[in-house]
Each structure stands twice: as structure tokens, then as C-alpha cells.
Amino acid sequence: MRKWGPLTAVCLGTFMLLLDVTIVVVALPDMAEALDASLSDLQWVIDGYALALAALLLGIGAAADRLGRRRVHVVGVGLFAAASLACGIASSPGLLVAARGVQGVGAAAMFATTLPLLASVYRGRDRSVALGLWGAVAGGAAAIGPVLGGLLVEGPGWRWIFFVNLPVSVAAIWLTLRTVPESHGARDRRTDWAGTIVFAVFAGTATYAVVRAGSAGWASGQTLAAFGTAALALVCFVVVELRAAHPLLDLSLFRTSAFTGVMAGALAYNMAAFGVLPYTSIWLQTVLGLSPVQGGLAVLPLAATSFLVAAAGGRLLHGVQPRYTIGVGLVLIGAGTLAQAVLGAGSSWPALIPGLALAGIGAGLVAPAIAGAALAAVPPERAGMAGGAVNTFRQLGYAFGVAVLGTVLTSRMAESLGDGKSHALAGGGAAGLRAAGTPEQALRTAFASGLNTAAVVAGAVGIVAGAAVLLLVKGERPATAAEVGEPVPVRAG
User: What is the pTM of this model?
Assistant: First the structure.
């Protein structure tokens, strides 16, 4: 326990925060019914968590170097547990979304300190073993999330996908305090809170603008105002970062084509691979009538194949230039997502299996390589910033993907159903539309066409991003996990 206690403690926290990305997907229909939630509410249940995690990851990581990584990690686990309790007892969509945002703050504190804590405890071969096991746990969390979520939703109810975090959090805090020593980074480095705040404003308002466009239209006053605020926040972020003594993200790194290509790949990765999944889950359960467990098993081929390929590829592809593993992986993700655009009114879940499996193979190639590629593209003293940027861009990609693809989905469905019915159907309201007299054939046709269009957009993003990586990322030697301590797990978020 003395030797592997720190690894166990850190893995418990990692398992929770990554499980909460995928476990929520299969619970969306039950949440919508219990809380009378709209489609935009469901989108924010996902995006509130992802955006908080993305916006605060770099800032909290820098603060932890000064305040103490173990201290920040424990506070993060405690905040995550409290927010999980608030999610579980939420009585309205607004309270649930707010609690999910706080949960994302706690997850950012946990995720930002996870790898530095392991790197401070383990050396040499032990570090390689620890990072390998940590990566396996992280990938396993993504794979088991939909199935565990289905079991909990179908058993004690959807609120238990949050309540289950409470005993795990208590164990993680106790074990962390007992086995993990405190460590610090550069204490003289100031935290760029101004950059953190304006970046959060940019990410939040840009996502809100896309979600709002899906219901109010792209030309509405609120949509345009949100886009204008997002653009202004982005300009402010650039100005703040150029003037900061210790910037949140050194913008000069983007002068390197390899770094730019990797960040574009990270942004596109989560959008292309996972952005359609929430709507696929709603289709499986509310239109096809699958149970939550069956719905979780139906999307399992994506997570399962990605986990297996990542585990095997880490050894078989060692030394291969990252431009090939990431570029080809993104193209496979794009092709796999395009292969899911085959649905018709009479289609069922087996039609998705080939596309999900192909996308999973691509995800298994991209996930282990993308952090090492970012680190290989920057000077050694910027390694921590590059690793944090990869995770930030991945979470942004997931948040933007859910928002953009939801708007694409409803816009396509509205062509046959109208705006009101399309939003109700995408938000899990198929039963209500049936009761109101909407023909079953019309519901199935509309949802299938919406999913097909969203899959085409996501697939195109993956293929274009793959081509960009192949063109921009040159032949740098990929950094290994033992060298950098910055692997990125296979996950949806």
C-alpha cells in the first residue's frame, strides 16, 4: 500500500471525473422526463461540465504549483463530491446545470494535479508502470461509463449516476491524505487569472451562441449578441496573453505549424468522435425503445475498440511519427462517423456498429499519441503548458461539438417536423409527440435524417482535421509517457 497507495488514490479520482463524461449520456432521456428538461437544458448538462473543465484546467494547474498539488487535488475531490450530491438532488434543469458546472470546477482541480502528483512520487520504471496503469484506468472509465450508467438508470434511477461518486470521493480523499506527499512546482510563477476569466467567457458565450441559434435562429438578436461577446472575449484573451508575464497559454507556440496542427487535431478529435453520441443515445431509447442498459451496450463498440487499440498500439506503434498515428486516426474517426450516416425510418442499433467500431479504432490511435506530439512540438520548458493545452482543446471540442451538432440535428429535423416538434423530439420527447398524434413513421424518419446530417458534419470535421495534421505536424520524435508524464486517456471529453 505504501508503494502503490498514491497511484490508487489518483486513479480513483481520475476514474470518477472521466466516468462522469460518458455515464451521463445514457441518462439524458430519464433526466428530461423527470425534470421536464428541454433540449438546450440537456446540452448544458453535458457542456457545463466540459466547459468548466476546459476553461479552468490551465489556470488551476498553475495555481496548484504554488499552493500545493495535493492540497488542490483534495479540495477538487471534495468540491466534485459536493457538486455530485447537488446534481443528484437537483429539482430543476437549472439547478442540475449549475451543479454540473461546479462539478467541472472540481474535476479541473483533480485533472490538473493528477499527473504532476504521480510524477513527483514515482521514478524510472515505477513511473512507467504507474502511468501505464493510470492510462488503462482512464480508458476503462470511458468504456464502462455507458454500461454502468445504464445499469444505474434502469436500477435505482438516474440520480444514482451522481450519488455513486460520494463513497468513491471519500475513499479518494482519505487515501490521498494518507499516502500522497505534498509537492510544489515553480512557486514564483504567478497564475494568469485574467486570462483564465476571459477564456472562460469566450468558451461559455460561444457555446451559448450556438445552442441559442438552434432554437432562436442564427440571425436573432440574442444569438448575434452572444457571438459578438464571444469574439470580444477572444480578442481580450489574445491581448491579455500577449501582455502577461506568465501567460496561461504562450501564443507564440502557435507560430510552430506542428503545435497548431496538434491543437486543431485535439479540438476536432472529441467533436468528431463523441459529439453525436448524446443524440444517438436519445434516439436509441426514446425512438427505438431500448432500455438504458441496452442503449449503453449499443454505443459500447466505440469505447471498447478505442480502449483495445490504444492498449495494443502503445507497444506496436512505439516510435512511429505522431503525424501518422494522429492524422490517420482522425481520418478513421471521420470515416467511422460518416459510416453511421446510414439510418432510415426502419433502422435499428446494429446499423451503427461498423461505424462506431471504425471510429473507435481511430480514437485508439489518436488518444495515446496526441499529448506526446504536442510536447515534441514545444521547448522542454513549455511541456506542462502544452500538455494542459491538449486537454483544454479536447474538452472544448466536446463542448462545441455537442452544441454545433445539436443545432445541425434539429435544423434538419425541422424541415419535416417544424421547429417546436424537432426540439421536443431531440430532447427526448418522442412519447409526448406520439400521444399528440404525430405519426411514428414521421418521428423515425425525422430523427434518422437529423442524425445522418450531424454524422456527416462530424465526419467531415474528422477527415479535414486528419489532413491538417498530416500536413502541419512534421517528423518530430514522439515523447514517451516515461519521459513526459503526460499521457492522454481515451475518453469522451
Answer: 0.89
